[in-house]
């Protein structure tokens, strides 16, 4: 059971807030149907869901910052980005001090401002390109859009590869067939003999490859 407490100040926006909460926790999933399709892969954790996103733009930023670095390093960089460009706010929660930067705000930043935070030049360019595309309405990181079109537009941005595209599709677009096959964890879990075999192995899991990815990542936790 999921229990959600909402501040009284959010009552006017209660419907859209709850809709985002449902996406965040993947509450529309059908675990039994998915587990039956995935077979033995889902046997250990048959109710596993995909963590969604309250903000698709935030997830996309985190995906870019997480390219080829540890989770801890990516979290540190995201913290710097939020402190520099996020709106300050007062809350009863000691650690909740800023809102995540909006695409409009980040689109106004300079390359130098981002690199001064320790973000590489390549990833800074990717972040700026993403922010400007989202701010201009060219890319919409919401589940209701055209997934294939959005993924194609993401691929056109500098520094955005297949791992990032599929991770964003999984988390921000709620696409159940997303499969970040270049992920090191997935490759470790499947251990294909050749790179091309991994996608062939995943064909049997369509259209639930995103859930298959979650189970593969979870399998690594079990092994450790």
Say what oligomer this is.
Answer: single chain
Could you say how many structural domains there are in total?
A: 2
Largest sheet: none
CATH class of the largest domain: Mainly Alpha
Outline, from the CA principal axes?
A: globular
Using only C-alpha atoms, the radius of gyration works out to 18 Å
CATH architecture of the largest domain: Orthogonal Bundle
| End-to-end distance | 28 Å
Structural class by sheet pairing and helices: mainly alpha
Helical run tally: 12
Query: N-to-C SSE series?
Result: HHHHHHHHHHHH
Total number of β-strand segments?
0
**Percent of residues in β-strands:** under 5%
**Average pLDDT, to the nearest integer?**
92
Low-confidence runs of at least 5 consecutive residues: none
CATH superfamily of the largest domain: Hypothetical protein, domain 2
Task: Report the CATH topology name of the largest domain.
Answer: Endonuclease III, domain 1
Tell me roughly what share of residues is in helical segments.
Answer: 40-55%
List descriptors.
224 residues, mainly alpha, Endonuclease III, domain 1, 2 domains, 12 helices, 53% helix, globular
Describe the structure.
The chain starts with 13 loop residues before the first helix and ends with a helix. It has 224 residues and is mainly α. The chain is built from twelve helices and no strands. The protein has helices at 14-24, 31-38, 56-65, 71-85, 103-107, 111-115, 121-135, 147-155, 162-171, 184-190, 195-202, 209-223. Helix content is 53%, strand content 0%.
């Amino acid at each position: 059971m999921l229990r959600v407490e909402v501040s009284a100040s959010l009552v006017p926006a209660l419907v859209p807030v709850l809709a985002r909460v449902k996406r965040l926790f993947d509450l529309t999933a059908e675990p039994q149907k998915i587990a039956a399709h995935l077979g033995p892969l889902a046997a250990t954790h048959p109710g596993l869901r995909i963590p969604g996103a309250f903000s698709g733009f935030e997830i996309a930023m985190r995906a870019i910052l997480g390219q080829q670095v540890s989770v801890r390093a990516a979290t540190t960089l995201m913290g710097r980005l939020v402190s520099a460009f996020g709106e300050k706010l007062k809350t009863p929660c000691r650690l909740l001090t800023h809102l995540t930067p909006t695409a409009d705000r980040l689109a106004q930043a300079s390359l130098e401002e981002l690199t001064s935070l320790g973000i590489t030049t390549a990833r800074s360019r990717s972040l700026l390109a993403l922010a400007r595309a989202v701010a201009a309405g060219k890319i919409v990181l919401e589940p209701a859009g055209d997934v294939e079109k959005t993924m194609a537009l993401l691929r056109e941005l500098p520094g955005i590869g297949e791992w990032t595209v599929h991770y964003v599709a999984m988390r921000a677009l709620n696409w159940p067939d997303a499969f970040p096959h270049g992920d090191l964890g997935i490759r470790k879990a499947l251990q294909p003999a050749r790179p091309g075999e991994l996608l062939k192995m995943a064909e049997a899991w369509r259209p639930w490859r995103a859930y298959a990815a979650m189970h593969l990542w979870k399998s690594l936790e079990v092994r450790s």
